[in-house]
Specification:
The protein is mostly helical. 72% of the residues lie in helices and 2% in strands.
């Protein structure tokens, strides 16, 4: 029987305790994302230094604009394009697997349980887009960048938590992860629908045939990386040449993997491949994209433009204000209309802090900024600076709110991990079992008896030493 989800309406609990298998999956996934987030943060800082130190600026531009690749296949691309179109395809491949797993085994498998993260994510994308459009329209700016502040970067958010030394209870972490997965899905749809101009139907047809073959081989249980990697590269190349953004190929292949476990399987093929590919995505692909995309000028004039130009101000306010209001408001409305009670261990300010943390929209926001204003290099760099500034402000605000509650989070996390009977299962998951309290009483009695024995031995030793010869 499927384990209850964090938002199981039968329990009428909002952000309740995760099932044990889900908690372990979330812990493993976020551990890899945290490491990748720290590398992402380091890559972003390196890019900013490389692009802003006068002696190094020209070399940065030379490296990221250097072209390499087979021109005959339409793949003579700059290093920056290889990072954005090639490396991020790996990132979206992992996102596709995560989405598939959520649909068949996670929060999104049950429509009632999926309501909260889906509504929160949709509101968390609609409100930032509305804020950007309103600010840009009132300032007579371009509305082309409406999608830039709609993204959430889970890796960067977790890196912020790691840097400030703040822990989150597993329910809040799962909520943030599910938000990011749904967010990625809609970001993919936005890229596919709004940032595809001219389509080469021959190349697109070839990519479609390749995807069908990919699905057929999976269905027939054909194994071997030497089969799938060349096929995946061919699909990616055809998708790129079709005019549809190449990252769509990554998510399409990720969605085709089987993520439900069959009898005798410890991990499904999707979970196994995700475990292998996630370190490549989080540790290599995304940091390389950041290294060649985050290098923008941070001069006084450029920073001033962020807060005076309508497009860039719309991005900052969309990330800082729009994301927070959208996610918090969507969560509150979902709870209000489903009459679900908030987990008694948490408070609404905790949801507000996580909503603010979701305003860190680094990776996908940078990508959409490049697509939205392609051809205007100056505006692209200014929008990137706005993404960095908005993400930084959101991180600071969320960090302050989370720090205030950090002692409470630490207590909750310790309670979730406590295993006094050393059976490998945290005690909070056994408290409803009939023999649990008897077993715990016996353990505490044994500990007390051992303590008394040691005290008696110590007292006896002391007495022997003081007695006359």
């Amino acid at each position: 029987m499927a384990a209850p989800s964090p938002t199981d309406q039968r329990n009428r609990k909002l952000l309740g305790r995760l099932s044990l298998p889900e908690r372990r999956f979330v812990a493993d996934a976020l551990r890899a994302e945290t490491v990748g987030g720290v590398l992402l943060l380091a890559a972003a800082i390196a890019a900013l230094l490389w692009a802003n130190i006068p002696a190094l600026t020209s070399s940065y531009d030379s490296v990221r604009n250097f072209h390499i690749g087979p021109g005959a296949l339409g793949l003579d691309l700059s290093v920056q394009h290889w990072a954005a179109d090639g490396m991020l395809a790996i990132f979206f491949f992992v996102a596709g697997i995560e989405l598939k797993r959520e649909l068949v085994a996670g929060d999104l498998r049950d429509p009632k349980a999926a309501a909260l993260p889906v509504i929160a994510a949709l509101c968390g994308m609609a409100v930032p887009a509305l804020v950007y459009t309103l600010v840009s329209t009132l300032g007579n700016g371009s509305t082309d960048g409406w999608a830039v502040p709609t993204a959430t970067d889970i890796a960067f958010a977790l890196a912020v938590l790691a840097v400030i030394g703040t822990s989150l209870p597993s329910a809040l972490r799962a909520f943030l992860l599910t938000l990011a997965v749904v967010d990625d899905l809609f970001a993919i749809l936005i890229i596919a629908v709004f940032f595809t101009s001219e389509i080469d139907f021959v190349a697109l047809g070839g990519a479609f045939v390749g995807l069908v073959l990919f699905w057929f081989l999976l269905r027939k249980r054909v194994r071997g990386w030497y089969v799938y990697i060349p096929l995946a590269l061919a699909i990616w190349g055809l998708m790129y040449n079709s005019g549809v953004h190449a990252t769509i190929a990554g998510v399409a292949m990720g969605l085709m993997l089987r993520c439900n476990r069959e009898d005798g399987e410890e991990h499904s093929p999707g979970e196994h491949i995700e475990h292998l590919v996630r370190p490549v995505s989080a540790g290599l692909a995304v940091p390389l994209f950041a290294l060649f995309s985050a290098g923008v000028s941070l001069s006084g004039h450029a920073i001033g433009q962020v807060f005076t130009r309508p497009e860039t101000l719309g991005v900052v306010l969309g990330l800082v204000v729009g994301k927070t209001v959208g996610i918090f408001g969507g969560t509150w409305l979902a709870a209000r209309f489903t009459k679900a009670e908030l987990n008694e261990d948490l408070a609404w300010p905790d949801v507000l802090a996580v909503a603010s943390l979701a305003g860190i929209g680094f990776t996908v926001s940078l990508l959409i900024g490049e697509l939205a204003f392609a051809g205007d290099d100056v505006l692209v760099d200014e929008v990137k600076a706005a993404v960095l500034m908005g993400s930084f402000i959101a991180a600071v605000v969320a960090g302050i709110m989370l720090k205030i509650r950090n002692s409470r989070y630490r207590d909750l996390t310790e309670a979730e991990e406590r295993d006094e009977d050393l059976d490998g299962i945290p005690d909070v998951y056994e408290q409803d079992k009939p023999d649990y309290h008897l077993r715990m009483a016996l353990i505490h009695e044994a500990k007390a008896a051992e303590h008394r024995r040691r005290a008696e031995v110590a007292a006896g030793s002391s007495g022997d030493g003081d007695s006359p010869a």
